[in-house]
Each structure stands twice: as C-alpha cells, then as structure tokens.
Specification:
The complex is a heterodimer of chains A (227) and B (80). Chain A has one domain: Class I glutamine amidotransferase (GATase) domain (Rossmann fold, 3-Layer(aba) Sandwich). Chain A has five helices and eleven strands, in the order βαββαβαββββαβββα. Chain A is globular, with a radius of gyration of 16 Å. Chain A starts with a strand and ends with a helix. Chain B has one domain: Phosphoribosylformylglycinamidine synthase subunit PurS (Mth169, Chain: A, 2-Layer Sandwich), CATH 3.30.1280. The relative contact order of chain B is 0.34. The interface between A and B is medium-sized, with 19 and 11 residues.
Amino acid sequence: MNSSVITFPGSNCDRDMDVALKKFGFKNKMVWHDDLELPKSDLVVLPGGFSYGDYLRCGSMASKSKIMQSVLNFAKGGGKVMGICNGFQILVEAGLLPGVLLRNKYLEFICKNIFVKINNKDNSYFKDIKKDILEFHIAHNEGNYFCSKEQLKEIDDNNQIALFYSNKTGIINEDNNPNGSIKNIAGIFNKEKNVLGMMPHPERMIDPVLSGEDGSIFFENLINNLK
Amino acid sequence: MKISVIITLKKDVLDPQGKVIHQTLDGMGFENINEVRQGKYFEISTKENDKKKSEEEVREMCKKLLANLVIENYKIIDSQ
C-alpha cells in the first residue's frame, strides 16, 4: 500500500505520521506543498501542525497551495484522503468536507488524551475495527466543529459523522465535549466516505511505552481495509 | 485604489472572544453593553484605478480566501 503525507510550511506532525504509516506497512512518501503532482497513492494524509502559522484562519492558506489541486482531483476520483487536526482544518477550507473548525469554546489550547466513539463503520477507515471506543490524543486551539443547521441535518442524514467525543464507556454528552463542537463531533466524512477529517491524532497512540495502542488498532485495521 | 473591507461573524455563530471582551469591558465599568462581536478589517491597495473593477476583484478575494462564507460575511466599507 502506498501512502503520501503532505508537508506544508508549519506542519509538525508529518514525520510522526510517516513513522506511524511505515510501522503498519505503508510505503510512505513525503510530498512538499509546492509540488504539482501526487505520487501513486492509496492514501493521502494531510498532517497536523500549524500550516502558515494559522494566519487568517487555520488551514486557509494551505488549502490554496499548489499540491491541493491534485489532492482535490484525487479525492473527487474516489481516492482516500485523511486529514488530522490541522489537516482536518485544511480539508474543510478546501471544501472537501462540510462545516468549519472554530476557536475552542473556552479559548484554551487543549492538549490531552480523550475518548472517541466511532459512529459509522461502513467505510474503509473503520470497517471491522475491533473497538467501538478509542483513546486518542488531541492538541488544538481551533477544534470546535461548527456548521449550519441545514448542513448538520444533511451530514446526519448521510451518516457523515465519523467520531464523537465521549467518555471511556461511550457516553456522549457536554461533560465529554472538550472544545464545544456541535453534537460532540470529533471527525466527519464527505458524502462518499472516502475523505475523513478528525481532530484527534491516532499517530500519537502507536507505542504502548509512550502512549497507548488505540492508534495501532486504527492503522492496522486501515491498511487491511485498503488492501 | 485602496479598498477597505470588514469581515464579520454571522449572527448565529458563537464568538467566544467577543464574549470575553464583553465581560472584561463590563468588569471595567462599561455596563451598558448588550453584546460584543469581534471581526477582521483589511486594507487592500490595488493597481487597478477603476472603482467598480477593484471592488469586484476584492469581492472575489473575499469569496475565495479572505472570508469563510460558512461562518462569515464580508462588506466593502470604503474605496478611494
């Protein structure tokens, strides 16, 4: 399986993602934002970080970079594109995912472990995954997912919500909502479910000594689904 | 031409920064405030001398980059 991780000026989780993808069997290539063409890929990842210093709006500048035209075409042809954290912000700014990520409700940068409940397993990202609730890490200032009422209805009707913030037993409520996201949304798909954006970082949960193993479960399952 | 444009949050979008500014002003003794909403202001100096053309170009810039129309509105407030 071939993957590509795109590095924007200010990306800082690109190498972590590279390590994670390689650990679980992907042949990964790093791609510079100024390149025009993507290498042959089964998965394209937009990593976390602070592309362009979060100027104007998080992800807004990166969403207009040269490589993004190829990413848009790849996604429109059904290619799998995953955006983590800043990558999620870039995907919404690029129009590949609906909605927007606002400043966290309590104006704090949040950096901690959280639990997410998988809402939809009928897709290449979560099909056959052996857990319903995963412990991931979040580190963001703008993760407060927002969209209009009409958009929310559409997202819900099309089963586009991928992950909810929850507690470790899967209860989804305001107490388990770290940033004020509508309906506790932590990750969403596009209509076709080939594009996934999520604020949590699975690549930070691939080593039991350093963190946890739920990221390993995610990546192992992902590569099996893509084979 | 120099075009001035403001970007404001749409009515039903939460503005936590505006809220904190409101609370702080309130704490300083400005007790007559109903609400504070924070926005952005841009001055764009263009090579174009035609007012209509410059404004049209700035509107395109707003739609494509300066504003996110899911949450924000834009308004040209001055052209000279």
